[in-house]
């Protein structure tokens, strides 16, 4: 998977490369396995844990600061509280410059 030089790596890219590497597995098994792995990562990060996959990258929770915004149509000022998002930092071996 490290030979692929793409900006974005989608779920279907992962499925197709796993199908090539493991031709004896059927598509539904691969899809179910990816679902289980991704659900586990999301659940761990939601509980403020950091998930590191050696040679692939690190998943963590990133907080976005609270901020105010103005509706351009009504000029009304609104406030948006602190939000959290899933952050992925790829490993150096995944990013071959």
Task: Explain what this protein looks like in three dimensions.
32% of the residues lie in helices and 28% in strands. The longest helix is centred in the middle third of the chain and has 20 residues, at 27-46. It has 97 residues and is α+β, with helices and mostly antiparallel strands. The radius of gyration is 18 Å and the shape is elongated. The strands form two sheets. Strands 1-2-5 form a three-stranded antiparallel beta sheet, covered by helices on one side. Strands 3-4 form a two-stranded antiparallel ribbon. The mean pLDDT is 87.
Segments where pLDDT lies below 50 for 5+ residues?
Answer: none
What string gives the helices and strands in order?
A: HHEEEEE
The amount of helix comes to 25-40%
Rg from C-alpha positions?
Answer: 18 Å
Beta percentage is: 25-35%
Structural class: alpha+beta
Number of strands: 5
Mean pLDDT: 87
Sheet with the most strands: spatial strand order? 1-2-5
Number of helices: 2
